[in-house]
Amino acid sequence: MKKLRQNNFLETLSLYVDGQLNKADAQAVERCMHEDAEVRSYVEELTRMKALLAKKPKLEPHLGFWTRLSVELEEQKNLKPNLLPFPRRFVPMVSIASIVVLVVAGVFVVQNRNRLTQFLNEKSVAAREVYQKKLLQGKLLPLFSKIDKDHTLQFALFGTLPLDDKTHTTLRVDGSTRNGYRIIVGQGRQRPAMPVTVEKMLAEVQPNAEQHRAIDSLLELAGKQIESSVLVDENNAVAIAQDLPKLNKFMVTGIASCLEPVQRARLEKYLAKNDAQYAININQAPVEQAEKIYQKMRPHDAEVQFVVITQDTVASSRVQINIQNIRQQMEENFAAIESRRNELVRRMMARDFNRAMRNVPTPQQPMQVSSPDDGNILQVEYPAPHEGQTNSVEQLLVAPRVRHSMTIHQEATPQDQERARVNASPNNGGE
Amino acid sequence: MEAGETSGSVAISFPKSKWQETVNLVGVRERSFVPSSVRTKERMAQHEQVQFPVATLREFDDERLIHLFQSGNQDVYRVLVERHQERVRNLLYSIFHDRDFIDDLAQEVFIKAYHALPNFRFESSFYTWLYRIAVNRSRDELRRKKTKKFFSFQTLDDGADQEIEMKLSVAPESRDDHELVSLGLQKLPEKFRTAVILKDIDGLPYEEIAEIMNCELGTVKSRISRGRTMLRKAIEPLLKEVHA
Q1: B188, B162 in Cβ contact below 8 A?
Q2: Are residues B93 and B138 in the same domain?
Q3: Do the Cβ atoms of A48 and B103 come within 8 Å?
Q4: How many contacts, defined by CB atoms under 8 Å, are there between A and B?
């Protein structure tokens, strides 16, 4: 009896009934049956059960089975293929589930409609702000306010404006490149600071009273244009007028054009001595009246294209300048202007610009932004705008200076080199 | 020239063989593997689209009929169905013991086989393959019934128990012993029931049962043994009476 509770033994007996045991095992089972009546009874019952199952009557044949099956197969052949991502039998279940989900979602929306409306409004406002966000925000203030004539002259000669004298941080413009204009903001390599003053220049050039007045007026007008050309907004974004790089060339031209040839030669001598950015072709152009020169200056209320430098973007933007308004603000917010200039200098010293500018997005205008000189400088280059008729006086009077020591200047064209030869000849240089 | 002859060597064809033996130009025999796709194409080429009369088709064995089916002659399926329908019906009847239900189920089995037959790979006999489909389908059906009963708060074998008791109380001369055994089978869990049916009713060898039920040979032996023990317990009074 104990043996009959063991599954292995029962399995052996089952195999014995099926005749699956080898001779030795079968004999062992038979011995066991002989010794144990219960085992014998169990085997006999299994055998009888097996016989009963084997004799189980079969179903009567289904004569119409194929006919029925063939109809079903034919119907299935004509069925359109199931394009649903689940078997057709799940269609009612999926439909009910979809309805339930829709009802639950509807109830949720109705219950939370206020919060949802608020959320959507916030998102749309945020999106609108991002879309409509202007590069320049708040009040615009001039970075170079109350610029004196000496600084204006320095800009005319070298194209530089000091941001911070202690750290030699400057704003530099260069309209003499072949590819267009260049604006450079930052510390770093610059020409040796030559102390230029209007007084020294006038002493050198020796203009008459009328010429003196014209030069004074020109410097004053240029100073005002510089004021309205470099602006800073409330987020410390710097906007630099894209025509600023040609202002210094225009100034040199303006000063030279109101002088006699002899005085022009003296001016060129002065410029050469100070290693100025532009040289003067002494004998080429007639004397211009001061009024004509003033007329060529940019109007005060013109809409100007600016290069806007923010913490993380350099882009081009058109801004309408109201110089009177700016002056008024400047008077009221002089401390703020100083503070912003300091902030700009601080950022440049901390190289904030350089880190940020690694992620400059594509500007609206083809501009090249780079950080040469180990990251101490932010350099923006852009093509010169198409100006229609060229200024003949500018063309004739002024040309980029080619320095004698720099025989192969990287930006010197063959024409520049030709001009340099003309400038360097004894007939042109002396009085 | 043999069908498998290629330039520079003579192919010795071995039907259905995965390996093809060739003799190259210097007389050395080489064996190369023939992919199943090539073999299938060869087989299909051998069976041309000849329309045989049904009487002739009935003389063909399953394998030949399947080749014909796979080469596009789908009419041969009728012969396959007629040959195996009763076995499948009886298997399903043994499992479910429900005459009204088994014809629908058998039809589903043959429809499934019809759609799967183009991919039949001759790795087992047709009826083993067909039985496997039938067993799987009945397993699904039992599972479905079990779920249905669970949700209707019934126990699965309540009905069988009562029916067995009722039939045992009837006088032996008017009692249907086979009906009793069938009811006893209904008390067994599906895997034991199927194993016992395949062994004791269909008389299949253990190896084929293992193939049909997709399990190990030892598992089949164990299931049959345990199934028989359970069935013996269910119909013990009947077995004792027969003995007496």
Answers
A1: no
A2: yes
A3: no
A4: 96
Please state the pTM of the whole predicted model. Answer: 0.45
Mean pLDDT confidence for B45-49: 52
- Average confidence score pLDDT of chain A: 75
**B85 neighbors B134 (Cβ within 8 angstroms):** no
Going by pLDDT thresholds of 50, 70 and 90, the confidence category of residue A383 is confident
Mean pLDDT of all residues in B52-67: 85
Quick check: is A207 in a domain?
yes
| Res A166 pLDDT > 70 | no
ipTM at complex level: 0.73
CA distance B232 to A283: 131
For residue B102, the domain's CATH number is 1.10.1740.10
Q: Are residues A114 and A11 in the same domain?
A: no
Q: Other CB atoms closer than 10 Å to residue A158's CB: what's the count?
A: 24
How many domains are there within chain A? 3
Nearest CA in chain A to B107: A69
Q: In this prediction, what percent of chain A has a pLDDT beyond 70?
A: 66
Asked, for residue A397, whether it belongs to a domain, the answer is: yes
Give residue-wise pLDDT tens across range A66-86.
Answer: 999 998 888 887 777 777 888
Please tell me the predicted confidence (pLDDT) of residue A119.
83
Q: Within A133-279, where are the H helices?
A: 149-158, 198-205, 209-227, 247-257, 261-273
A112 vs A254: CA distance, rounded Å: 70
Q: Are residues B131 and B165 in the same domain?
A: no
Structural contact between residues B122 and B16, judged by C-beta atoms closer than 8 angstroms = yes
| Token digits of residue A165 | 């004298």
Helix (H) or strand (E) holding B122: none
Are the C-beta atoms of A265 and A431 separated by less than 8 Å?
yes
CB A187 within 8 A of CB A348: yes
Which of A69, A72, A74, A78 to mutate to test binding with chain B, by most B CBs within 10 Å of its CB?
A69
A259 and A239 both lie in a single domain: yes
A125 and A196: one domain? no
Domain that includes residue A12, residue range: 3-48
| Domain extent for B145 | 47-152
> Does the pLDDT of residue A127 top 80, yes or no?
no
Q: Is residue B41 part of a domain?
A: no
Q: In chain A, whose CA is at the least distance from the CA of B239?
A: A45
CA dist A236 and A140 (Å) reads 10
Report the pLDDT value the prediction gives residue B206, as an integer from 0 to 100.
95
On whether both A250 and A331 belong to a single domain, the answer is yes
Domain endpoint, select from B152, B175, B206: B152
In this prediction, residues A221-235 reach a mean pLDDT of 81
SS3 B82: helix
**Residue A280 or B118, more confident:** B118
Mean pLDDT calculated for residue range A129-148: 66
User: For A22-51, what is the mean pLDDT?
Assistant: 91
Instruction: Determine the residue of chain B that is closest to A56 in CA distance.
Output: B178
Distance from CA of B90 to the nearest CA of A (A): 6
Please answer whether residues A403 and A275 qualify as being in contact, where contact means their C-beta atoms are separated by less than 8 angstroms. Answer: yes
B124 and B69, same structural domain? yes
Task: Give the pair of three-digit tokens for residue B85.
Answer: 């329908």
Mean pLDDT within A259-269: 85
Q: How many CA atoms lie within 13 A of A339 on its CB side?
A: 8
pLDDT at A65 over 80: yes
Contacts of B97 in chain A (CB under 8 A): none
B14 belongs to a structural domain: yes
